[in-house]
Amino acid sequence: MREPAELKLDRVSKRYDAVTAVDDVSFDVPPGAYVVLLGPSGSGKTTVLSMLGGFTLPSAGRILIGDEDVTLVPPAKRPTATVFQDYALFPHLGVARNVAFGLSVRGVPKAEIAQRVAAALKLVGLEDFGGRSISAMSGGQRQRIALARALVTEPALLLLDEPLGALDLSLRRQMQEELRHIQRSQGRTFVHVTHDQEEAMAIADLIVIMNRGRIEDIGPPTRVYERPRTCFTANFLGESTVIEGTVVACTDGRIVVDSVCGRVEVSGDRAVGSLVHIALRPEALRIGRCADGDQPLGEMQVEDCIFQGSFQRVAGSNIHGLRLLAKVEPQSRTVGQCVPISARRSGLVLLED
């Protein structure tokens, strides 16, 4: 079995005439990691995946898989395999022959092909379906066939282009778990493209958030969610209240900000007079009496209350019109009610300019 590979993108760009699809992107992926490229349509994530697979050549920069510079290496000669969004299965071939296709074109002996195909189908839970036609398979089963066809070639790097986009919600969640289980059991490096934030959080070791061809943020899911670096990350990955204000004091790694929520103190270092933005996740916002050590933020008028099982989603606005969102313990609250609000101080995050 081929070992998982380290992946390195070094100042990679892709331009189409006057349009820059990917702009000076660099990041490193350790061997055996599950990486998700996350961003809205047009952010450049699919172009990055296409360059990793060799289907698109960069305009600048280098791509290294392990110790090999593969920037100009054609797809068939790279240690990669791709699972496409539409699966790209051959309707005239049965399940086993679809899975075997990549091995056949490589000239692998038939006995070895049969053994490896059987192992790949068992890995994705389709060991009894090798003789069936593609037309007889469901959407979820076709996704598994496409995955088996990619894994059977034992790639050092598996590329997944929105592989769950065509599935319904329950099946998508099931396949998220299965993908993660397969990746962990195989120990391979996976690079997965999606625009679904929940999907990214559920499966990734490392999330690369892209916007307008550039990297906005990169890190483990917990870090990029709890401590986003930019306004885009704070608003795109989950939900946030972003408080704007002016720095009025800076001492010992903490700043005081004059904002529409009053004077707010937060960790960071900015010059007095600077305009700053502070992110606040819904889980960090408190409703009711301000607890010792919390940051008071004034009051908000409740505009919406939604019961969501273990928590209540409460939305409202303060006197200055700032939209605020809290996820708090369920209890009786009334639309139109004015309630005091505060925040866990560790939940206030100073964003980069």
Tags for this entry?
about 350 residues; alpha+beta; OB fold (Dihydrolipoamide Acetyltransferase, E2P); 2 domains; 5-stranded antiparallel sheet; elongated
Summarize the structure.
The protein has 353 residues and is an alpha+beta fold. It has helices at 45-53, 95-105, 110-123, 139-151, 169-186, 197-203, 221-226, 231-236, and strands spanning 7-16, 19-29, 34-38, 60-65, 68-69, 80-83, 157-161, 189-194, 206-211, 214-219, 241-251, 254-259, 262-267, 275-280, 285-287, 295-307, 312-317, 323-328, 338-343, 348-350. The strands form 4 sheets. A 6-stranded mixed beta sheet has the order 6-7-8-3-9-10, with helices on both faces. Strands 13-12-11-14-20 form a 5-stranded antiparallel beta sheet. A 5-stranded antiparallel beta sheet has the order 15-19-16-17-18, with no helix packed on it.
Please tell me about this protein's structure.
- Helix 2 (95-105) packs across helix 3 (110-123).
- The protein is built from 8 helices and 20 strands.
- Strands 6-7-8-3-9-10 form a 6-stranded mixed beta sheet, sandwiched between helices. Strands 13-12-11-14-20 form a 5-stranded antiparallel beta sheet. The protein has a 5-stranded antiparallel beta sheet with strand order 15-19-16-17-18, with no helix packed on it.
- It has 353 residues and is α+β, with helices and mostly antiparallel strands.
- It has 2 domains: 7-234, Rossmann fold (3-Layer(aba) Sandwich), CATH 3.40.50; 239-350, Beta Barrel (OB fold (Dihydrolipoamide Acetyltransferase, E2P)).
- Strand 9 and strand 10 (214-219) form a beta hairpin.
- It has helices at residues 45-53, 95-105, 110-123, 139-151, 169-186, 197-203, 221-226, 231-236, and strands at 7-16, 19-29, 34-38, 60-65, 68-69, 80-83, 157-161, 189-194, 206-211, 214-219, 241-251, 254-259, 262-267, 275-280, 285-287, 295-307, 312-317, 323-328, 338-343, 348-350.
